[in-house]
Amino acid sequence: MNTDSPAAPTATWRKSSYSTATGNCVEVAPAADGVVVRHSKHPTAGTITFSHDAWAAFIRDATEDRSTSTNGVATITKIGADTLVKSLATDVALRFDDGEWSAFLSGAADGEFGFTDGLASVRWRACCISDLFASAGVTPELRQALPGARGGRSVRGVNS
């Protein structure tokens, strides 16, 4: 695997809420020193790691459709309807189709990937927990009954 992030295989990956059900998309994961990016359709193609500052610049580059990269980590190039994100430090190049890239841009514009501040990290963790519950078939009513849930009831003598 081509990667510039040794922690990438154990990362908790997140895609935009605008991504389609096929799941093919830009995936990002917060890391201790920044943010890691990969392509969900081709996870073995490698990852690109951004420091927090470089990630903030990458998001600006992407959402403002800048022709010149200011993040110092990766370039963003349009190839027809596709978008190529290429690492400046390694041979990793991630190519996203228009739908995948558009979903990422929409999520970025909504602040889904603003991992540079504490509030965004909390929002991201809450979204991951919500996704986990949903995939396990846990209903909102049952979630409210869990210990520690706001407005939850006491479960086995544990007060929320």
Instruction: Indicate the CATH architecture of the domain at 8-114.
Output: Roll
Strand order of the largest sheet: 1-2-3-4
**Number of helices, where a helix is a run of at least 4 consecutive DSSP H or I residues:** 4
The topology string of helices and strands comes to: EEEEHEEEHHH
Helix-strand category:
alpha+beta
Number of strands: 7
The CATH topology label of the domain at 8-114 is Transcriptional Co-activator pc4, Chain A
CATH structural class of the domain at 8-114 = Mainly Beta
Q: Major sheet, described briefly? A: 4 strands, antiparallel
Distance between the termini: 45 Å
Radius of gyration: 18 Å
Helix content: 25-40%
User: What is the overall pLDDT average?
Assistant: 77
Strand residues, percent:
15-25%
Rough outline? globular
Low-confidence stretches: 5-9, 118-124, 150-160
Structure description:
- The chain is α+β, with helices and mostly antiparallel strands and 160 residues long.
- The protein has a domain at 8-114: Transcriptional Co-activator pc4, Chain A, CATH 2.30.31.
- 30% of the residues lie in helices and 21% in strands.
- It contains four helices and seven strands, in the order E-E-E-E-H-E-E-E-H-H-H.
- The strands form two sheets. Strands 1-2-3-4 form a four-stranded antiparallel sheet, with helices on one face. Strands 5-6-7 form a three-stranded antiparallel sheet.
- It is globular, with a radius of gyration of 18 Å.
